[in-house]
Amino acid sequence: MIKTFWRTAIVALLFLCACQNKNSKYELKTGESNGYSYEYVTNDPLKVRIYTLKNGLKVYLSQYNAEPRIQTQIAVKAGGKNDPATNTGLAHYLEHIMFKGTADFGTLDWKKESVYLDSIEHMFTHYGTLKDSIERVEYYKLIDQVSNEASKYAIANEYDKMVSELGARGTNAYTSEDRTVYINDIPVNQLENWLQLEGNRFQKIVPRLFHTELEAVYEEKNRSLDNDYWKTFETLYSAIFTKHPYGTQTVIGTIDHLKNPSITEIKNYFDTYYRPNNVAICLSGDLDYDKTIALIDKSFGNWKPNEQLPTWSKVDEDPIATPIAKEVYGPDAEWINIGFRFNGRNSEDYKLLTLTDMILSNSQAGVMDINLKQKQKVIEPSTYVDELNDYAIHTFSGRPREGQSLEDVKKLLLEQVELVKKGEFEDWLLEATINDLKKSKIQGSERNWSRSNDLVMAFTNNIPWQNYISETDDLRKITKEDIVKFANEHYKENYVVVYKRSGKDPNALKVDKPAITKVTLNKEDKSPFHETILKNKAEKLKPVFIDYEKDIQKLKMNKEVEVLYTPNTENELFSLYYLSDVGSNNNPKMNVAVEYLQYLGTEEMAAEDFKKEFYKLGCNFGVSAGEDQTYIYLTGLSEHMDKAMQLFEKLLAAPKADDEALKKMLDGIFKKREDSKKNKGTIMFEGLMNYGLYGPKSPFTNVLSNRELREVKADELIDIIKEFTKTQHRVLYYGPKKGEEVVASLNQYHTLPDQLKPVPPPVEFKMQDVSKPAVYWADYDMVQEEIMFLSKGDGFDKTRMPISRMFNEYFGGNMSSPVFQELREAQGLAYSAFAYYGTADKPVGNDLFYAYIGTQADKQPEAMKAMKGLLTDFPKSEGGFEVARNAILNQIESERITKARILFDYETAKKRGLTSDIRKDVYEQVQKFTLADVQKFQEQYIKGKNYNIVLIGNREKINFKELKQYGEVKELTLDEIFGYEKVQKIDLEKPNQ
């Protein structure tokens, strides 16, 4: 025993030394402050301290003072793979239930409520044993009755109300195969209140309002069944993993398990894995290390660990000896996925896999980027690495061009792998790729979300922090020969290919809706715990508003072109924008010209060589054409800005026409147009929404017809590109150079004509008055229906912006809003439901209002009736109003608009004719508003309005009889929605009437 002990200790010591000396730049050290010991790593760019409390809880803290907020992520080292095979979906169920409160909050009387909850638990256990369908229906009615009695003691969404009051943003959670993570972005002055709240909810699970939340999970499952990407993903994983839970089960669970949930098993999962020695609190932001760890210890220190925490054992998969082919059918366009299996995130495979992936595809100069994307051989060729703990998957994707089969795409994708195996990529690409990864790390360090996510990944992937932050530097030890060897060893006939084909899914499934009765919400009530949080007043933060005269330097370059300048004092990255007030509304060919530019070179340099040169410099350029503005941008490492500008300007000044590239590009556009007609999201949120607001002529349909597109000539697109810098525009710069240096570089390299041409007058599209309501619908093979109520608002008025923000926060903006509570929490009618009053983005525009429901087809009548009721009869809640008011005030007090955001905030304000930060008006007026003011706004701008309704769903499942009560029902063809076929002539001198 003694020999064994010392042998183990020596091995452990050698391993620790190896970790520490792996990269001497990053050495693991220990420190102590204010009575707490911690670990840190030398030269850590994120300045992370890692604490371990006595109960085993890990705490990762990273200080970043960009704004007085903290991004919080609480990570549980357990996910879908930890679900028992007989009860899949437990981890995901539990994620939902974690928002329902505890014995201390979310309840009016825990002692009485708990009796009902215990009964419901036993009833669900019995329900799972029933096989007869009629008997199940009848017994579920009993569950529904008892659940309604239990709901009388529940305070719905009290957790969401509390975090909203604190000023939290982005409240959410996710469950993956390996982890479950709970997310909030909070003001720094609310850290103690947030910790008190989280410390309570992580120590006891209470599955209240279970059967309505079960409905939400059903809807989430149905949404996945409607999603061809999700179905392809699941098919790929089930073929790659025939033994491991990554493939043998899914995170959301099987339909059979969803129909027979076990509250007892969910509780057991919580008791097993939601323990401090299996959890990490990962914070990044404007925090004080000593105060933060003391507060965390205060709220979480008494949390009991699980001394018998299960040890996960990796399930070994058999090698894939020959290609495995699968097919998935659905209404969306066709594509292909090819997956190769590797060892997991915390393995030596990962570094070589990362580099191989980037050499193949880095969005600029990878082997696939040049050979397939630049040469237009495949639509949207790409690769990505799914970083799972036990394994990783290298996935290749692509869409076919017209006349191309999925098998052709597969051949082209695999040919790129063969080139890497032969070493047929340029030597400089490896170094450039590593620099690109390093640049991405620097960009990530500018965002608290990215920083905290790094902490989560290191913890849940069991990677020592010194190893995690040294990974990019470690890549420099890898040679081209290493990559070639790795590729030859790992990319053989050992892959799975999934052909996603267009057509009716023969295996289409859905989770049926059980009958449930609307539950009590007790929206006005507060638990004693909630009252305590409210009484614990945090020291107020002072809001900081932008002063457009002081915070932006307004410089001039040659020809009096305005240069808006904000310095980057944090790192060596820059962003340079040329901005013109000319967009696709002025000329539908603008979008075509913008796309054409990426395939062009000059007389001296081919298009692909431009891409390569920019990548070598650690820079990137692009063009984005909006409806009324166009950006040309250049970003990257500041030390190479001048060289990149010279390349950039040469291309803009003298692009060389390429007729072959144009023909391929147009063929690709035609194919993408056909593909977009098969995309549910595009049909609904772009096509139908625009039709419902504008009618047949809208910014969305203001495109070249297919005939007009075919007639486009290279020279006219070249002229549009050249005209950009010859027309009035302005320059936006964010970077480390001084203002005079930026102007000097612009004067030297940004070529301008003797006289800049004036910007043509804007083209405006008028929203239609809904004098006679209509229901526009499109047929789509899907389980759910997606429905939207739409109305035109009044003309722009900046004085309406504060009250509209107050209305949005109160009415439909979050999980504690009436829209969400009524449609999802009380009645289980939708997984997703929200409403929004949008302010026009320019003085000549109109506001708009929309309300969205994503619901199961057989719930359509109830869901629409419920939404219409909310739009008609204003739901009054003094408590909800105070939650919304506090949310806005706390958000504004802790919000800081910095970096390049200052420039774009100014541009947005100027476009509306504003000369000051509108948030100041919002902040001042929100403090004075009453619930009566919000009701008055609703009565004036929402209630009594006529609404056009747009809907996408399966014609066999749509209830047309019910739809008729909302207006004249009209089916729209895809050609009517998209406007590609019809030749549209729009008067560019006058607004569209």
TrEMBL record:
Residues 264-435, 714-868 form the Peptidase M16 C-terminal domain. GO terms for biological process: proteolysis. The keyword Hydrolase applies. Residues 63-104, 594-689 form the Peptidase M16 N-terminal domain. It comes from the Bacteria. InterPro entries: Metalloenz_LuxS/M16, Pept_M16_N, Peptidase_M16, Peptidase_M16_C. Keywords: Hydrolase, Metalloprotease, Protease, Zinc. The keyword Protease applies. Signal peptide: none annotated. Pfam families: Peptidase_M16, Peptidase_M16_C. PANTHER family: NARDILYSIN, PROTEIN YHJJ. Belongs to the peptidase M16 family. This is Predicted Zn-dependent peptidase. The lineage of its organism: Bacteria, Pseudomonadati, Bacteroidota, Cytophagia, Cytophagales.
